[in-house]
Amino acid sequence: MLRYSQVSSITTWRRSCLWIGLILLLGVAACAPTLPFVATPTALPTATATATLVPTPTPPTPTATLSPAPTPIPTPDVSAIHGLAEAGQLAVGTQIGDATLLCLRYEDATGDGAPEWLAVAHQTTNPPRLSAFVLDGDAFYPLEPASPADGKPDVGLGQYPTCEVEVRDVNADGMPEIAIFGHADNNQTLLHLFVWNGAGYRRLGFFSGDAGVRFMNVDGDLEDEIWEGYRERSAPSLAWYVIFTWEEQTYGWTSDRYGWYALNRPQTYPTHKPEYAVIAFYLALDDRDLPGAYNLLFPQEERTYETWAHGFATTVQVGVGSVHTIPGTVTENSARVAAMVTSWDNEGGVIIGRLWDTEWATVRTAAGWRLTHATAELLEEWTATYWP
User: How far, in Å, CA of 47 to CA of 51, rounded?
Assistant: First the structure.
C-alpha cells in the first residue's frame, strides 16, 4: 500500500487481381500468385462435351411454423393467500397473549424447504421488551434472548417496538440464520442470532453497541462478519468496531476497525491526539479524500500532491485498527503511533488484500498532530474471492 511485414507479394497480387477483375476474367490465370511450397499441377487432357441443360427445380414453398402459445402464468389465489395469513396470525395470536404482534414472517428458518411462521411481539412490561418465536405446525419454539448483565434491565431482544429481522445464511455454512435487531436505552443496538439445531433454535451470539451493530463483508470471502460498534468518547466523530468472525461453529473476536460515527460531508478530522491523526489519515484515504489525507502530512514540501496521490491510483479501500501510541516514545510535541492497516488494491482487475504492521512518527503543530514518516511491514497478502 505504501508503494506501487512487411508487405508481401500476395498483397501485390490481390491488387492486380482487383484491377484485372474489372476486365471480366481476361488474364485471370496470370493473377495466380507463386506461393512457396505449392507444387504446379500437371495439365489434364482437354475433353469436348455437349452440355445438356437441366431445368432448375422450383424450390418448395416453405410451410409457416406457428410459434407455440406461451403457457399462461396462473393468477395467484388471493383468497388462499389471505386464508394462509389469517390462519398464521390466528395461530400466533394464541401464543403472544397480551403482547402486540409487530411482524409476522413466513419463511424457511430450518433449511428443510418448508416455511415456518416467525413472529416478533412487543410486551408492555416494565421495562418493555421484544420477544420472538417460531411456530412450525403445532410446535412452538421461543427465541430466547441473552441474559442481561449484572445491574442491567432485562429488555429481551430489544426495548422499543421495531421489526428488523433477517432470515438468510449469514455465515455461508449452508443453514439459514434468524437475525433479530433491537434497540434499548443509551443508544444501544442489539443483535441476536439464532440457528435451527434439529430440536430447537440455538442462539449463535448476542452483540450490542452504542455505535450500532451490523453485518459486513469487507474481505471478499462471502462470509459476513459482525461489527459491534462503540463511540469514541474523546473524538465523537469516530467509532470503534470490534469484528467477530465465524470460525469453528462460533463467532469470535478477530480484529478491530475504526470508522466514522456519522458520514458527515465535509468530514472533520480529529487531530488533537497523535493516534487520532493516524486514524483520520486512513479514514480519509478510505473515503478517497486524498487532499484531506495529504493535509495531515508534515512537511508536505518533500513531495508534491500529484506525486504522492499517484501512489494510491489502484487503492479501492483502506482499514485501520489496533491504533495506539508506543510506550516510551510520547513527549509533549512528538510520538510514535502503531497501527494495523488493511488495504485492497485493484491490480489488473483482481482485488488484492494486504495486511500491514505500520508505525508512524508524529509531531504536534499549531493545527494539531501531523504525520511525518512511516515504516510498514507486510504481514499477509490474499486475493479477494468476491468484492462487495
Answer: 12
Q: Per the structure, how many domains does the chain have? A: 2
Q: What is the pLDDT of residues 239-270, one digit of tens each?
A: 999 999 998 888 999 999 999 998 888 889 99
Matching residue, cell 416478533: 120
Structural domain includes residue 92? no
**Portion of the chain with pLDDT greater than 90, in percent:** 63
Q: Cell digits for 243?
A: 469484528
The set of residues, in sequence order, having a beta carbon less than 8 Å from that of 176 and lying 6+ positions away, is 107, 108, 109, 110, 111, 167, 168, 169, 195, 196
Reported as a single tens digit per residue, the pLDDT across 318-346 is: 999 999 999 999 999 999 999 999 999 99
Q: Is residue 84 part of a domain?
A: no
User: How far is Cα 304 from Cα 315, in angstroms, rounded to an integer?
Assistant: 19
Claim to verify: residue 206 and residue 279 sit in the same structural domain = no
Bridge partners (DSSP) listed for residue 362: 335, 371
Enclosing domain of residue 361: 274-383
Residue 314 falls inside a structural domain: yes
pTM for the whole structure: 0.74
- In this structure, the answer to whether residues 136 and 238 fall within a common structural domain is yes
